[in-house]
Amino acid sequence: MANLSASLASTADDVITCKAAVAYEPNKPLTLEEIHVAPPEPSEVRIKITNGAICQTDLYYLKGKDADKIFPRIFGHEGAGVVESVGSDIKNLKRGDKVIPAWMAECKKCPKCLRGKSNICDTLVYNWSNGFMPSDKKTTRFSKASNGMPINHFFGTSTFSQYTVCDEACVAKINPEADLSKVCLLGCGVPTGIGSAWNIAKVTPGSSVAVFGLGTIGLSVVEGAKVAGASMIIGIDRDDHKLKQGLEWGLTDTLNTCGLAKPIEAIIKEMTDDQGVDFSFDCTGNPGVIYSAMECANPAGGVAVILGLMDSSKEISFHPSKLLWGKSWTSGLFGGFKGRSQLPDLVDKCVEGVINLDHYITHKMPFSEINKAVELLEKGECLRCVMDYDR
Ligand SMILES: NC(=O)c1ccc[n+]([C@@H]2O[C@H](COP(=O)([O-])OP(=O)(O)OC[C@H]3O[C@@H](n4cnc5c(N)ncnc54)[C@H](O)[C@@H]3O)[C@@H](O)[C@H]2O)c1
Ligand SMILES: [Zn+2]
Ligand SMILES: [Zn+2]
After folding, report:
1. Is the CB of 286 inside a 6 Å radius of any atom of ligand 1?
2. Does pTM top 0.85 for this prediction?
3. Same topology for domains 2-187+357-388 and 193-332, yes or no?
4. Ligand 1 atom closest to Cα of 383?
């Protein structure tokens, strides 16, 4: 650590040249190339990313499924690293601190943060559909090394770069004992699933749960539901391997959506004495699946949670009477956890061995092979592939 701090000291006010994976247009491989990373402005922090992974949300934006389609851009929002330098207004972070870039921003001073009713912050709202830094809303800290072309930021994190610059609202300081090659996963997927069971649905002991889509988000919902004491956890996917894998996470029943003779909601109703499940979760973003997940929740007070990101060009229609008996159809981001004040506690739980991240890490790769990692997630062949940014 001492060595790292000493070596970082020499770069504090410099423009850093490093490797990043730049997305120039939708649906094309990322371009691994040299970029310049400007020093942080007063409210910002420059971070050396050591490890990171890819979440399906990166691919959603990479494929241009969002309304804004901002390119060129450096994606990535599941990573961890070490502070390299801080802006002049930053008091609580210093060079060498271990951090997780938190796309779930928490400025602690905007009306949304002060209202305290949710984990949504106005900095997140800005970052969601813009590629500039939230401090001035008109500049970026990234540029192409060969010609100076500005490159947009993503979600306030842009972890597909060896160095990134984040607003202070998007930096969670974590336990110095944390293993960055594991806790990088706490940047998005695992807290989203676990927190959705605990904080959004509030799964209760003895309840029945249906989880649609068994990637990292779905499996961490399963993990959260199991810890909360659910007695029936039905896993639904179109991939038999994912269903088999889900048994290790605590599924009590599995259903493959391919080739079913009747609608999945009818089957789930039969499995639950004609009631429907107490809690259902969509972890796919597929419109038909989102609808089925809503349908299969108990009409009398069941809770259906949408976690997947649906293509911005699509819509779902439903009759409001579906909710007349008190069913709730809800959603949320990052499992309802706050980025800066709650993420460090989750890291502590990993250091103490309470949360085990190992079983989500199905692959490891050098950062230089990021396009292979994208392919693995696209083909459904991995949960999380942790990349080493020094290679
Ligand atoms: N709400 C949030 O805060 C938040 C955070 C992270 C990710 N997400 C979203 O959650 C979703 C899942 O992310 P992930 O990283 O776990 O993805 P993933 O690709 O690893 O997993 C998706 C799973 O769903 C299954 N699936 C997809 N379409 C299906 C269908 N039509 N029928 C049955 N099974 C189907 C796949 O086989 C796969 O196992 C994505 O939409 C992502 O954008 C939301
Ligand atoms: Zn805020
Ligand atoms: Zn994510």
Report:
1. yes
2. yes
3. no
4. 20
pLDDT digits (tens, 9 = 90+) for 113-126: 999 999 999 999 99
pLDDT tier for residue 12 given thresholds of 50, 70 and 90: confident
Nearest-ligand number for the alpha carbon of 188:
3
The residue contributing the CA closest to ligand 1 atom 7 is: 57
Cα(380) to centroid(ligand 1), Å: 10
Fold of the 193-332 domain:
Rossmann fold (3.40.50)
20 lines ligand 1 (CB under 6 A): no
Instruction: Report the CATH superfamily, name and number, of domain 2-187+357-388.
Output: Medium-chain alcohol dehydrogenases, catalytic domain (3.90.180.10)
| Pick from 375, 391, 339, 390: nearest CA to 54 | 375
- Boundaries of every domain in the chain: 2-187+357-388, 193-332
Per-residue pLDDT of 279-289, as tens digits, reads 999 999 999 99
Measure Cα distances from 90 to 81, 242, 289 in Å. Answer: 17, 44, 44
Task: Answer whether 53 contacts ligand 1 (Cβ < 6 A).
Answer: no
